[in-house]
Amino acid sequence: MPNPKIPRQEMPKQNPGERSRNFNEVALGYTEEQARQEAERCLQCKKPLCIEGCPVEIKIPEFIQLVAEGNFSSALSKIRETNYLPGICGRVCPQEEQCEERCVMGKKFGPVAIGRLERFVADMEIAQGKMEVPRIPPSTDRKVAVVGSGPSGLTVAAELAKLGHQVTVFEALHKPGGVLVYGIPEFRLPKAIVKRECEMLEKIGVDIKLDFIAARTATVDEFFEMGYEAVFLGLGAGLPMFMNIPGENLPGIYSANEFLTRVNLMKAYLFPKYDTPVQIGKRVAVIGAGNVAMDAARSALRLGADEVHIIYRRSREEAPARKEEIENAEEEGIIFDFLMAPVRYIPDAKGRVGEMEVIRMALGEPDSSGRRRPVPQAGSEFIMKIDMAVVAIGNGANPLVSSSTRGLEVNKRGNIIADPETGKTTKKGVWAGGDIVTGSATVIEAMGAGRKAARAIDEYLKSGKW
Q: Which of 8, 293, 313, 336 is the most buried (most CB within 10 A)?
């Protein structure tokens, strides 16, 4: 029976002093007892609002009830009816802004920890040494090309493979996972989890081809010539943004993309076992306050920095990072400098970045994002000593595919124009979803877009109607 009086179960974590110097996962996961107690808090609402808050429409009360009963394998199967990446989503999705935000329990007792329970059942399968592969219907012999193996691409591939279609995923990098492997650090999302979820897709028939650069190895039009009847573009947003201020090209200044790719995908944190050097300063400034900025700052600390500052032009309330990621960073000793922005970088005697001029900001009226606009305060400039900076202010769309594909329209920011409900683009037979359409967003939002596109692609393959 549901028991709302049970307190919300906190997840054990590594001690901040220890974890700030290693790349092991910070959150340690629920025990079986904790998971079942947390699941018993669910009221099993007749009209579950939590599902409305889930972009991939997981049957949340049903899987939680199975956890409460101790039937963890069936709980995982229930999740996989709509989500093939539970181990990933349970770790990095912002449940507090989606499913948990709508949980009725949250009004008085704190929401049910839906994300932590999702992670628990995924991890239980690993602990038991199992991988239960769902049955797939006979092949339809309809071929679909998916460009990009990030969250949206993997979701499209899984959904279409479940329907019997022949799906090939084309990935530019040497490992599948997109931002999940190059962007998110090991301490937040172990790469063994991403590898396992990709292996599950391969077991249901998805073919993943690596080192394949769309628009170079093959164009979108050439995919159709190769026999594919539909193409999904899940390219991500991989073009780094900079502030275009003086000194930004000095040695010692990284884009967050380059820094995190070196650390995560290229294993710089395991140097010299992996021959990927990354020079870490003693006083590091990370510009921005989103999840990527937190990942960069916490990685720099683990790699040996003495002091790491987050420089953000707005206040803590406007910071776009998840609350728990900000809290984790603070616990580990990251210094937050709010209402500040860089003006210029100054070289040292060797020509590397040695100082950063910063100006103080004040918050004015809300801008188009709904957040109060930061206004520079004249005369408030001062100099900070730094020897490394990471610019984490967002990413744009790489134009490689869009510029080489006739009939594929983009907006003024270079993002592919696609119907938000179907993913259909302006080019027949081509769909798109995730960050290449919306700009930088969350893993689960990209997965939701992939799920919608998969439904539309399946309908197109069956009817032939565009």
A: 293
